[in-house]
Write a structure and sequence with these properties.
The chain has about 200 residues and is mainly alpha-helical. It is built from ten helices and no strands. Keywords: DNA-binding, Transcription, Transcription regulation.
């Protein structure tokens, strides 16, 4: 992160109004999407004037980029690589799947990155960069976990493929639940990876 990014993070950390705006923006995006989110609605939600929102975030792109950056950083804090043991990696993968289910599916939501990805053509380059970095963060972590479970016979490409497929199952499963209203769809979309983790972890 450059110096400007460091200053931005520090400022956000101690500015309650800025945090409240970002919280309201994240909530609005999850509810109605990026395009529908307006500074006027955010101002009403926070209890400030629209001009105050613009003061902290001059453009919609600035705001959503900050929200996505915070989302990524908070997620990264919760990601801990397991010890290089098959059983530990198996537990870590199951915990990752459980965490996605509890914070996204069980809340009848899609993840922030899923919602923003659906409106990719509307996003600013800086937001897209944060979005891409977030996906890569998860892919790198999943690749490490898979490699711990069965590194001896899997190629780097196979490990990467598994990571991509696991992540696609999580996000795809959450979309199925949202569309059908059937929570079991998520379990059906991810049960293969739980079974695989069990086999590879043995």
């Amino acid at each position: 992160m450059d110096m400007q990014g460091t200053i931005e993070s520090a400022t956000t950390a101690v500015n309650p109004t800025k945090i409240a705006i970002m919280d309201a923006a994240e909530k609005a995006i999850l509810k109605s999407g990026y395009k529908a989110m307006s500074f006027r609605d955010l101002a009403a939600e926070v209890g400030i004037k629209s001009a105050s929102v613009h003061y902290h975030f001059p453009t919609k792109g600035d705001l959503v980029t900050a929200v996505m950056q915070r989302y990524k950083e908070e997620f990264a804090k919760r990601l801990v690589l397991p010890k290089k043991k098959k059983s530990a990696a198996q537990k870590a993968l199951n915990k990752f799947i459980d965490g996605f289910k509890e914070t996204v599916v069980d809340q009848d939501n899609l993840s922030l990155c899923t919602v923003l990805s659906a409106e990719k053509s509307l996003l600013e380059p800086a937001t897209l960069e944060e979005l891409s970095a977030f996906y890569q963060l998860k892919l790198d972590w999943l690749s490490s976990v898979v490699s711990y479970m069965r590194k001896d016979w899997m190629t780097t490409e196979e490990i990467s493929n598994y990571a991509s497929q696991i992540l696609a199952s999580l996000h795809g499963g959450s979309v199925l639940v949202k569309v059908t209203g059937e929570p079991e769809m998520f379990n059906q979309a991810t049960c293969h990876w739980r079974d695989l983790a069990k086999r590879l972890g043995e």
